[in-house]
Amino acid sequence: MSNTAELIATEQRLGAHNYKPLDVVLTRGQGVHVWDSEGKQYLDCLSAYSAVNQGHCHPRILAAMTEQASKLTLTSRAFRNDQLALLYEELAALTGSHKILPMNSGAEAVETAIKAVRKWGYETKGVPEGKAEIIVCSGNFHGRTLSIVSFSTDPDARGGFGPFTSGFRTVPFGDAEAFEAAINENTVGALIEPIQGEAGVIIPAAGYLRRVRELCTDNNVTLILDEIQTGLGRTGKLLAEEHEGIEADVTLIGKALSGGFYPVSAVLSNSEVLGVLQPGQHGSTFGGNPLACAIAREALKVLTEEKMVENSAVMGEYFLEGLKSIRSNIVKDVRGRGLMLAVELDPEAGGARQYCYALKDLGLLAKDTHVDTIRLAPPLVITREQVDWALDRIEKVLMQ
């Protein structure tokens, strides 16, 4: 069997260098733990960017996947399958959605929402053809497709990929007045993350999303909340919008919708928005396939029946308090909601990546983002003892 150095060298030689992972080669996962090719155990504090909220290789989801994989995996949407309607029914009951459109990746869900909301704008709102605008926020991360990077404010995401898709207006995240000023007669939608994950777990002030919801309602603008990272228990509620007591017109979920077993995403909305799509106008060969649906159904059941959302709220609060109690002169800010947490370091600390490597050496895997921030997002099954274990290592590294 190839050793770690050989695997890393092969990856560097043959793979496109569009990622810069920490140099650990993982071979196995169970619950909150993963093991590398040398057999060393780690506590995973990234959860594949919140895709494995239910923990690695959850036995119930694995059983559902195995059972369905032995029966039927793919029909395309040319024919019906016996899992799709059941997923619709269970998702609708859980989230209150009236219409659902399944896709595969988070980026596909975002693209689907953009298309549907533009079409709604032309056919229902009466915006002149080709003039539809969607308001987005600076610091956003919604995926990597060409249309999505067209409205990114990250130079790495945009640089060298133009010409770009037009029709987006960018406002500062968390600024309701700027949002209000950006609305005009051609505004069909607003695409917002309730908490900006990739930007470093940026949480807007209380009341911001409520005000945005009011402005969208008053101006007949469709509010799209990208809950691909924040949704499905990550912030201590099923959906992060619940913290503000609002409902989006379109909600995007993915990642943990499959518990990390398979790419599954969904656009949750109403008949008014998704009703504009007619046969042949949008789709996906794999979207809504029976294997994906069976996995997603069990992933949702596990999340709710095993009280993972509630655990996220309790353990998240405990973890946050523990992080705030660390008295290190290199820590600039600590923030979080549920188990979506971040430690922002002082720029003079020399960047967060070296601290992530130091944590790796102590058996904890976390990832740096935006140079100075360590993001912490363990699976929602984490226990108090495991949080204490993590806090000991984080304190040790930050106090060195």
Automatic annotation (TrEMBL):
Cofactor names: pyridoxal 5'-phosphate
UniProt GO MF annotations: identical protein binding; ornithine aminotransferase activity; pyridoxal phosphate binding
Family matches, as Pfam families: Aminotran_3
The keyword Nucleus is annotated on this UniProt entry: no
Keywords: Aminotransferase, Pyridoxal phosphate, Transferase
Domain of life of the source: Bacteria
Alphabetical list of CDD domains matching this protein: OAT_like (cd00610)
Protein family membership: Belongs to the class-III pyridoxal-phosphate-dependent aminotransferase family.
Protein name: ornithine aminotransferase
